[in-house]
Amino acid sequence: MKKxxxxxxxxxxxxxxxxxxxxxxxxxxxxxxxxxxxxEDLPQIIVGSDNYPPFxxxxxxxxSTGIDVDLAKEAFKRMGYxxxxxxxxxxEKQELLAxxxxxxxxxxxxxxxxxxxxxWAGPYMISRxxxxxxxxxxxxxxxxxxxxxxxx
Length: 152
Description:
Blueprint: H1 6-28, E1 44-49, E2 57-58, E3 64-65, H2 67-78, E4 82-87, H3 93-98, E5 104-105
Parallel strand pairs: 1-4, 1-5
Antiparallel strand pairs: 2-3
């Protein structure tokens, strides 16, 4: 039986690590964010991200949107930045960072095995998947699902 969503779970956890770290760093600072009269006066931070609905994607008006986009915009705003999302080819993220074409990456990305490849901010979201069965079911673990038909 093929495991469903294992890579997606890892990506979601990694993305969560990034956001919580950013929010923690912001909350630990003793200096207040610089006050600007208008949001467009904020210095911009270019955030590289790929298309991964519902977390980050481009809407019908060509604007970046999604759960990650909303969280990142708010987190960076609290730190005194305007987050500008740049759609990237995720496979080129390291080169884009090294070349300074983007300032950071934000998205569903697993830390496991990459601990030393990036500077991590920590998780911002933890997502778990559950299996619900009838109370009288003989299914008590994921192994009990072998050979069964399931609906998602």
